[in-house]
Amino acid sequence: MAMCWGRFVRWMAASALVGVLVVYASILTVDAYETVWFSPPLDRQPILGHLRYSAPGLARKARFDSAIVGSSTARLLAPRHFDDAFGASFVNISINGAGPIQQNRVLDVFVRHHPRPKAVVLALDHPMWCGEQAEDEQPLSGLPDLLYDDNRWNELPLLLSRRVLSATFEQFAYLVGLMPQKWGKDGFSLFPLPSYYDPVRVHDNLYGKAGPKPFPPVTEPIRASARERAGWRFDTLPRLDRMLDSLPDETLKIVFLVPTHRVLVPPPHSLAAARIGECGRRLGATAARRPNAHALDFVKDSPTTRRDDLFWDTVHFTVDAAEEIQRLIVDGVQFRRSEPGLFDYLGPGDAAEAD
Hints:
- Helices cover 40% and strands 8% of the residues.
- The longest helix is centred in the first third of the chain and has 29 residues.
- It has one domain: Rossmann fold (3-Layer(aba) Sandwich).
- Helix 1 crosses helix 6 and helix 2 runs parallel beside helix 4.
- Strand 4, helix 10 and strand 5 form a beta-alpha-beta unit.
- The C terminus is likely disordered.
- It has twelve helices and six strands.
- By secondary structure, it is an alpha/beta fold.
């Protein structure tokens, strides 16, 4: 009897091991995140529901020569609009929740695999990039962080996980035709879908009890001298210097402060407005120091940012707003001028003289 039980246990253990090996082999073959260098060349779609995992695979794709980098606020910037304007092949590798460090990492992956990119667009959220405190640098460890380095072996043992298995099923269903294409192969997808737009919920997001607190009224306009402004800290901006320095001189570099709904735009002559203005001035100076670099500021109380129907919440605009913003970026770069009431063109130009 003991021998029968022993044989049964060994059979169960062997079956379990075979099952795990089959699952692991399937994960490596399907390669949902396009990170396994020896997997077969299949016509995969990026799993944009897992952006931090999928972005490195997108960034490595040889068919792209240009990139859009940002956080979730840049997700609806459609590469095709910049393709047409700049004669390039863009990929959107913006990542939900990505701070400056994460954006720097994904740009590094793109540049390592495209040493001479045609163009790079950096979408900066002013609360992250124009704040006083920078993010703490954390070492790369575990998935998905290890997907961003040059070692294509170290993440392989970590791919046997529930999240990766879920993505594998989704990718496999797409590859065999059981699921239609869900995600754009250039990193762009309509998400959330416009059919989910609920004006009542949007109004609550913008003005409800959980919404942003109003800025205090400006009782006396801020008057900061040039010396005082020079002493203001923007601890994250040096990372932008490093990102731009990683790009060749001939690369078109476009840096812009992403528009938010007007409830997050500080009133004129306030300290918060002065800080954003100084941050913009430094962005312009940064652009002026580099060939083919341009900087624009959309953080304004403008006809676009006043329209509730162009936003999902205080920071995420709709696809209609995204198309208008991209048109304005192209115009600003091509004509090197501001559009009064919509955006400021920060440089090169006057910013070069101010620095």
